[in-house]
Amino acid sequence: MSEKAILFDSSKCTACKGCQIACKCWNGLPSPTGLNENVFSGTLQNPPDVNGDTRLIITFNEMEAEEGMSNKSIAWAFGRRSCQHCSDAPCAQVCPGGALVKDEATGFVSVDDSKCIGCQYCSSACPFDVPHYYGAQSKVNKCTGCIDRVENGMAPACVSTCQPGALQFGDRDEMIAIAHKRVEFLKAHGYEKATVYGENEMGGLHVIQVLKYGVEAHGQVEDPKVSPMVGLQQIMKPITAVGTGATVLGLGAMFALAAGYRHKNLAYNEKTGDTIDVDTGEVVKHGDAQDELTVVEHLTENLPKKKGGSHE
Ligand code: SF4
Ligand code: SF4
Ligand code: SF4
């Protein structure tokens, strides 16, 4: 099987969210009751972000309407927020349990939650902040590219439901060619910032996007980079293989680096569950109730125990 990709064309998306619903239906994911309560996002984006029960959201990015664009002063630049299925896939490289695995044939990165130990290194390593905890089970969940459907000759569930044809699925090369043709068309019609996203980012993504108003307007990450913790994890892997005591050391060192990488000067908002970089105001971790202490406690709880019950 050749490399596959999902194509998202923002210029055709009507933000009906049919794709979000199809994803939940096919993957048997519940509505995230509780996550939206008392949270007013200020937009039609609902839920506010991906979470363990929601693998895909359509983002409503506000922009100032240009002349002739809308009869209102504000316009939307719709975006697709989900796993981008990186060729380099740092999440899979750091996962100590082997829960995240890149399928070399399609390029999609799947997740086996029975192998997830809940350490969330993948969340720290992902430049798009995609993997999130799954409900009360403390397992990470994310888009799998519907590899179960793809291997059986079907398109991903989200693609199959999109009425305006904003989502397509096929060979990656073909999706890239279609995206370039569409960008050419948009530019010819005055959308100067229109661009293809995903062709080269992170070694090449398996979600290719046509961004009508440019990368930033659609809420995508400009020039995504692999976290330095990925390099350390490669060093720690042989050490963690030596024994459980070393595993604790390895996990501790990796956590410290992950925290250092992401958490320079952070504040945790108990109400929203967001972790905010105080210096930049950026939300570095969205509200899934996982502050640093919770993560440390969770790590400790999930480490192998001695027969007597204490942690090694
Ligand atoms: S189903 Fe298609 S048109 Fe509707 S929100 Fe999803 S991508 Fe956009
Ligand atoms: S977008 Fe994030 S979760 Fe998806 S493959 Fe890339 S690093 Fe992994
Ligand atoms: S590819 Fe499958 S798992 Fe991924 S967003 Fe689409 S429906 Fe959900």
From TrEMBL:
GO biological process: cellular respiration; formate oxidation
Residues binding [4Fe-4S] cluster 2, per UniProt: 23, 143, 146, 158
Cofactor note: Binds 4 [4Fe-4S] clusters per subunit.
Organism domain of life: Bacteria
UniProt keyword terms in alphabetical order: 4Fe-4S, Iron, Iron-sulfur, Membrane, Metal-binding, Repeat, Transmembrane, Transmembrane helix
PROSITE patterns to which the protein is assigned, alphabetical: 4FE4S_FER_1 (PS00198), 4FE4S_FER_2 (PS51379)
Names of required cofactors: [4Fe-4S] cluster
Keyword DNA damage: no
Gene3D superfamilies from the UniProt entry: 3.30.70.20
CC per GO annotation: cell envelope
Family matches, as InterPro entries: 4Fe4S_Fe-S-bd, 4Fe4S_Fe_S_CS, FDH_Electron_Transfer_Unit, Formate_DH_Fe-S_su
Sites where the protein binds [4Fe-4S] cluster 1: 13, 16, 19, 162
TM spans (from-to): 239-261
Residues annotated as domain 4Fe-4S ferredoxin-type: 4-34, 107-136
Subcellular location: Cell envelope
Pfam family, any one: Fer4_11
Gene Ontology molecular function, alphabetical: 4 iron, 4 sulfur cluster binding; metal ion binding
Identification of the protein by name: 4Fe-4S ferredoxin
Organism: Slackia faecicanis
